[in-house]
Amino acid sequence: MTGPTGEPLMSMRLRVEQDIFVVRQLGREVARAVGLESQDQTRFATALSEVGRVLLAAGPDAEVVFSARPYGVPTLHVTMAHPVRGEADRLAPQLQQVGRLVDTMEVDDGSTGTVVRMARRLPPGASELTPARMDEIRSGLAGHVPGSPLDELAVQNQQLIAALDEVRAQRDDLARLNAELEETNRGVMALYHQLSEELEETNRGVVALYAELDEKSVQLRAASEAKSRFLANVSHELRAPVTAIIGLGRLLTDSGSDDLTEEQSRQVDLIRTSASDLLTLVNGLLDLAKAEAGRIEPNWSEVDLRAMFGQLRGTLRPLATRPEVDFVIDEPAVPSLRSDEVLLAQVLRNLLTNALKFTESGSVRLSVRPIGGDVEFSVADTGTGIPPELHERVFEEFYQVPGSKPVSGRGTGLGLPYARRLAGILGGGLRVDSEPGSGSTFTLRLPATS
Fold first, then answer.
1. What is the per-residue pLDDT for 2?
2. pLDDT at 430
3. CATH number given to 3-157
4. What is the DSSP letter of 361?
5. Could you say which of 34, 98, 113, 279 has the lowest number of CB atoms within 10 Å?
6. What is the protein's major site of localization (predicted)?
7. Predicted TM-score (pTM) of this structure
8. Under 8 Å CB-to-CB from 110, ≥6 apart: which residues?
9. Would the pLDDT of 172 be above 70?
């Protein structure tokens, strides 16, 4: 009888009416031994005696087996097998109310007769049912001497008196509390109704607020899409005249054109420089608008990181012209990665360019390493650093850390936001670790396989 019900503790048979008192006593003793609380002991014993009464009315010789399941959710089980078959449909309605006293009750027609199974979960504070404890419980139950029906009746009377005393104490406390409440505030009911009305009104307001939030969310998405379209259209329209300005400036300073005075040459150079900065800003806006609009689709392929690092080393070397700054691109610890080569190179180029702009002395280093099932690219510099409270703000459009000045070139505030969006498109993320005076480390984490 072990099976899923657990290890048996003891068993007995129901032959005469007196056995109903015995099974009730044993049920209470077993419940107490495994750790059920006093009220649960009474419920469990009552359920046993009632099921025993119903089974005995159908005929004698029903077997009662007590068992416990110490593993998983500790549970106390009782199996009551009656030798008469086909009684399940008749007994189940009679035992429906009894089922409320336990956690589970099943009435089935088994191979040897009608079987009633009951179970009660043990409370969290119950002692652990170790093998030694189970043997101790069996030993205690084996030495249990059943009392007479009068003894059991006395116990039931004591339990009833205790329950009545508890109910009376609760009734007295309730009466006292009601008297105090009535004395201190006779308008409680009126206040309750008022609060109920206010709560209903608040609920209606909350529902309306959720509807308004949904509407605002739709409007916000529409505004974001409109902003992306605006940036894309304006950036596209600005590129042509800005490019024309740069071309005209180049023509004015060309050797085949008329000579310009020194002041005119300086002004034309200023125009060309400003136009180049404006073109950089326009291109950044256009790239950002494409990323926000979801128009960038990655082209997945196997990327040779050694070749990419070599290309970055060659293209960015002209920017690292200051002898005070060591520009280092380590040999990749990961030979290849499945990603979009163009987008990945763009992210790393943005991070390296940004580091070179804001590092006055020390070093700028690019490295890569495997981390579990991911790959981490790190761009570390020895610049001025970023306060912790501004770590997320540097990824906002057009934001620059107060007091920070680029050592070379000009910052637009678009490189880092664009790099983070590209990192998301590649299935990864971009974060920064930095402290003022300790430099910054930007980490791009991507999955090893896409």
1. 41
2. 95
3. 3.30.565.10
4. S
5. 279
6. membrane
7. 0.43
8. 81
9. yes
